[in-house]
Amino acid sequence: MTIVSQRAQSLGTENAFIVLAEVNRLIREGRDILSFCIGQPDFHTPQHIQDAAVSAIREGKHGYTPSAGIAELRDAVAKELSRTRGIEVLPDDVVIAAGAKPFIGYTIASVTDYGAGDEVIYPVPGFPIYESQIKANGAVGVPIFLRESRQFSFDPQELADKITPRTKLLILNSPQNPTGGIIPRKDMEAIADILRQHPQVWIFADEIYGRLIYDGEFVSIASLPGMQERTIISDGCSKTYAMTGWRLGYIANRKLAPFFTTWITNTESCASQITQWAGVQALNGPQDDANRMRDIFHQRRELIVGLLNEVPGIHCQSPGGAFYAWPNVTEACQLTGCRDSEEFRKRLLNEAGVAVLADIHFGQRVEGEGQHIRLSYAASDEAIREGVRRMAEFVKKQMK
Q1: Could you tell me if 182 and 320 are in contact, meaning their C-beta atoms sit under 8 angstroms apart?
Q2: Which of 78, 132, 283, 399 has its CA at a distance of 20 to 30 angstroms from the CA of residue 330?
Q3: pLDDT by residue for the chain (400 residues), tens digit each?
């Protein structure tokens, strides 16, 4: 009898897509659903980027490329990372892939050995693929908890306490999914100070939301003394340029670039050449559309946070970046008789027609931090107003 491997059976997923499928099913059944569950810009890809892709097709630029990516895009990425991080990145340090997500698995597979007890420290709540790829690659996951009292950063001392001789990788995400929190410079400097005492630890810096900053500043740990050589800078075009479905991501690390290139040769062969030429235009072309989208997200943040804080039992900090709100719904759960955020989420969907994600979709619930949900405010002002209105109506109805 054929069997399925334990690795395949234990592989996690990204629940945003599972909830989205549920939402689409309800919509097909005729239900009126407002969805705030998927993290993708609701804008069209800027026209000049679309035009670059069409030109690539018509010019016959649609065959295989080198696994590391076309030279023009690697050069554009190197210049962009050098400018925005204040460091020197060379084109040979850069590798292109079909999205930034594959580099999570490639990194863990490149710096840990399967079943050897190698440890990876990762943020919780956090992007769920961190944990699933740690497990799939036979490493040991060590969660480090983001605290509401720290604007959803973690205590550097907690990091110091968790590092052991078996620690091989630290995953940092700033701005963060799902909280929208930003690691402040003083914390980033403290993290770097700690890591200097542990030279065996690599850093995976997930900076995909680095251009979506509203408060404070974006600080890449790679910009701090002694950190660039051991940091895998991960970024891409999905969020900044509304190119999620184009699938274009990139990393920079001089030592690991050849290994990432080999992983790509073994898996996807190369990113789409058409998409790569679009990426060249995205990075080298005018930035007006990207800046406009960022400004609109900023305005929406102000709108959704203000409205959420008017809903009985909901308390929402103002996220410093990305396009996610992470409200505390502990009191709202009590008011509505929901045992936790997941039941609250399900009832919002089925009784109020509002789709959100629960905190347990982003790792184990952090002890002492209460209940949270995530809303993506990559949605129109009208949808935000109506969605939060429905949430408020649902809570108030249960209070009667």
Answers
A1: yes
A2: 132
A3: 998 888 888 888 777 778 888 888 888 999 999 999 988 899 999 999 999 999 999 999 999 999 999 999 999 999 999 999 999 999 999 999 999 999 999 999 999 999 999 999 999 999 999 999 999 999 999 999 999 999 999 999 999 999 999 999 999 999 999 999 999 999 999 999 999 999 999 999 999 999 999 998 999 999 999 999 999 999 999 999 999 999 999 999 999 999 999 999 999 999 999 999 999 999 999 999 999 999 999 999 999 999 999 999 999 999 999 999 999 999 999 999 999 999 999 999 999 999 999 999 999 999 999 999 999 999 999 999 999 999 999 999 987 6
Q: Tell me, what CATH number does 385's domain have?
A: 3.90.1150.10
Question: Is the preceding omega at residue 128 within 30 degrees of 0, hence cis?
Answer: no
**DSSP assignment, residue 246?**
G
N residues, the chain: 400
Coil, helix or strand at residue 250: strand
Please indicate, yes or no, whether residues 262 and 122 belong to a single structural domain of this protein: yes
Which range marks the domain in which residue 173 is found? 64-284
Neighbours of 379 (CB within 10 A): 19
Angle, vertex CA 59, rays to CA 58 and CA 63, nearest 5 = 100
The CATH code of the domain that includes 215 is: 3.40.640.10
3 state DSSP class of 19: helix
Tell me: do 137 and 275 sit in the same domain.
yes
Last residue of a domain, one of 284, 308, 342: 284
Predicted TM-score (pTM) of this structure: 0.95
How far is Cα 325 from Cα 188, in angstroms, rounded to an integer? 23
Answer yes or no: do 339 and 243 share one domain: no
Regarding whether 359 and 256 lie in a shared domain, the answer is: no
Q: Same domain, yes or no, for 75 and 28? A: no
| CA nearest neighbour of 120 among 179, 61, 2, 203 | 203
Question: Which residues have CB under 8 Å from 69's CB, separation 6+?
Answer: 94, 95, 96, 250, 270, 271, 276
Q: What are phi and psi of 204, to 5 degrees?
A: -100, 110
Same domain, 272 and 293: no
Q: Which of 245, 262, 284 is the last residue of a domain?
A: 284
